[in-house]
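Minutes, project check-in
Item: structure for the 580-residue chain
Input as provided by the requester:
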Amino acid sequence: LSWVGHFVKHHIRPAFLKFIEDNPSFSPETLQLISTTRARKAFLAEIQKKETAFIFERMSPYPMNPENQLKDYATNIYNQFKKDKTLKEWRGEMKIQSKKYLLIAKPIYAEESCLSCHNHLGKEFKKIKEYYKNSQAFEWQLNDLMGIEIYRLDLKESLKELNPLVTSFFLIGFIFFVLLLFLLETLFFTLVTKPLHRLSKHFKQVKQGEKPLSPFEDEERGDEIGKLIKEFNAFAVHLENIQNELEKSLVILQTVVDSITDPLVLINKDCEVILENNSFKNWKEKECAKELIERVLKEKRAITDQYKGKKGKVYHIRVYPVFERGEEVEKVIVLVEDITERKKMEERMMFLEKYASLGQIAAGLAHELNNPLSGMLLIVKELQKNTLSKEEKAQYLSLLYEGMLRVQSILKDLLQFSRAEEITTETLNLIEVLDKTLSLISHLISKSDIKLIKDYKNDKILVEGNPKKLGQAFLNLILNALQAMSSSTVKQLIIRVTTEKEFAVVSIEDTGPGIPEELKFKIFEPFFTTKPPGQGTGLGLTVALAIIQKHKGDLWFETSPTGTTFYVKLPLAKINAYEG
């Protein structure tokens, strides 16, 4: 269409204008021959006979030919071109008389050749003005927007014409797509899926133990699959090396574990054995300590306990948590130690220490017995006289009876202390045990000019234990404190009893010279003593520690040049009866 307009504008129109200059008498109707609008419409008229969906229109708000009057649907498009001179084309969809069209619109601006007919040109064009009555059609100036040309396509009609073609293209494309897909699938299976399947099968067999962990053998390939196989092979070699190192480590670990003479086992929360040493395998009394394991899993800390087995065997059990994934505990290590002989040795040591303590008590005991016995002898001498009245004899007999009761009480306490008995526990008042122990050596305290200070939080603090054994432990600690102050200027013994959460704490403080740094780690060793020969066995603190530990307690000390304090920590009874 642009070519048709160009031909009319630059070839036919100049020749025609030259013709009418030479022939002034012409018919205005012949001016239609130089109209580009007329030429375009005539050219497209033949096309529209075959392509009925296509419509071409040229419109102007002030046309010479009323047929070309700007239509309502095109007014908005015209105004857009008028508003924006840079707009060269407008495209869009529009509904015109209930039909949907695809529109392309272009602006028509006044050029010099257009003004030959669309402006006042002189007398020779008076007939044009008379023929076309619309006077405004001759008022256009250069570059004015004279109108617009619109190309319309009926979408419904065009789609009808395209349906067979589209269907044909679709069928051809579909067939081509299926063939291409089949070809790609075949190539993909041959080049990718099949090698990957073989690689997957190889590693699956390795996983199931059907094949050893080894590289995947395949032909050399230079593509991505070949690179993948190469990386898999490198990874397989790496895993194989790790597996070999792991197996070596397991052998070393098993050797180390088996070298431990005590039964050792790694188990999970269901008591299933993961790793064990030979001692555990051969241990005939193995039994899952379910409650102890559950405590370790819950509290996430190591727990120790004692277990009595068959034939009088005594075992010390240690259960350690194994942390996995941060703070989670799903496995535990159980170490079992046969302490039967050690327990027997401890009992013998306590027995020996008890009798060693008797020697220190003997002097005080002689003093305690001497006073009532001396009094009793005087009373007997007086009773031998016949000069006493009945009232005096009755009074002397009463005093004699009281003295005998005093001697009986002293001997009874000594007998209970020295008797070897099985350890049985009961709920007892810790204050009473301490006071009873202090009463046994009260003569030593007063004889040594030692000031005794008792600071009890309460007069009734209940613990689970054996009163005789605890009394022996406290006696050993107090005697140790008394001996430490033998050469001190200030002699002061302070006994304190407090409670901390679920424990009772007894502190025994002296004002002795303290324990030298080099001896701190030997204090609880059996037969270690700083006393002169014949004044101690070196078992006092060792026996005390054994007794306290047997009561699930703890014993430790703090020392300085101005004195030493021993602390005894014991669990409170479940039903603690004291108030405050």
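Outcome recorded: Residues 155-207 form the longest helix (53 residues).
No further action items on this chain.
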